[in-house]
Amino acid sequence: MSSTAVTTGTWALDPSHTEIGFTVRHLVSKVRGKFETFEGTITSADDVTASSVNVSIDLASVNTGTADRDAHLRSGDFFNAEENPKMTFVSTSIVEKGEGEFVVTGDLTIKGVTKSVDLATEFLGEGGDPWGGTRVGLEASTTISRKEFGIDFNIPVDGADKLMIGDKITINIVAEAVLQA
C-alpha cells in the first residue's frame, strides 16, 4: 500500500481529534480561532482523485478565547450567524501533486456567498485505533479574502491608512476521520 492509498468508503470527521482553525492579522499581531462544532465526511474511492469531501461548520461555535470578540464575530458585522448559521465546503476536484500531497478544490460558502478555494492537503496516513476502528489523518490549509465573502467590517487606525483587521484569513485544518461501517 502506498502512503496515499486509502481504504475505500465513507469516513466521518472525529470532532475530538479534528481542529478547524483560522488566523487573521489584527493591528500588529495575529488572532487565532477555531470552530468547536462541525461535521463532515470524506468519501474515498479506489482512484483518490475520484474521492470527495463535504463539511458543514456551525459559525456560532467560533472560539477565539475571548467571549466579547466571539460574540462580535457571530454578529452581523462578521458572520451574521443567526441568519447564516453554517459555513460549508463541498469538494469539486482532487488533484494529486506528489506522494501524499493533494490539492482539494471545492466550493466554500460563507454568508450565502460561494467561492472556489484550493486546499493544499497532506495525507498523514491510515491505521487502526484501540477500539477496532480505522482512521485517516489529513492536514489542509488555504488563504481566503474575507471581503470576497461579504465580511468587510473594519476600523481605521493611525488615520485612514491602516485598518485594524486584515483581509486575508488563513484556514488550517488538522483532521482525523473514522471509517464508517
List the helices and strands and how they pair.
Layout: E1 9-13, E2 19-26, E3 29-35, E4 38-44, E5 52-58, E6 62-63, H1 67-74, E7 86-98, E8 101-110, E9 113-128, E10 134-145, E11 156-157, E12 162-163, E13 165-179
Antiparallel strand pairs: 1-4, 1-13, 2-3, 2-13, 3-6, 4-5, 5-7, 7-8, 8-9, 9-10, 10-13, 11-12
Count of separate DSSP helical elements: 1
Question: What proportion of the residues form beta strands (DSSP E)?
Answer: over 45%
CATH class: Mainly Beta
Alpha carbon gap, first and last residue:
21 Å
Which class do the helix and strand fractions yield? mainly beta
- What order do the strands of the largest sheet run in, or round the barrel if closed? 1-4-5-7-8-9-10-13
Under the CATH scheme, the architecture is Beta Barrel
Short description:
This protein has about 180 residues and is mainly beta. Helices cover about 5% and strands about 60% of the residues.
Task: Report what the structure shows.
This protein is mainly beta. The chain has one domain: Lipid/polyisoprenoid-binding, YceI-like (Lipocalin, Beta Barrel), CATH 2.40.128.110. Helix content is about 5%, strand content about 60%. It has one helix and 13 strands; from the N terminus they run E-E-E-E-E-E-H-E-E-E-E-E-E-E. Strand 11 and strand 12 form a beta hairpin. The model has no long low-confidence stretch (mean pLDDT about 95).
Key phrases:
181 residues, mainly beta, Lipocalin, 8-stranded antiparallel beta barrel, 1 helix, 59% strand, elongated
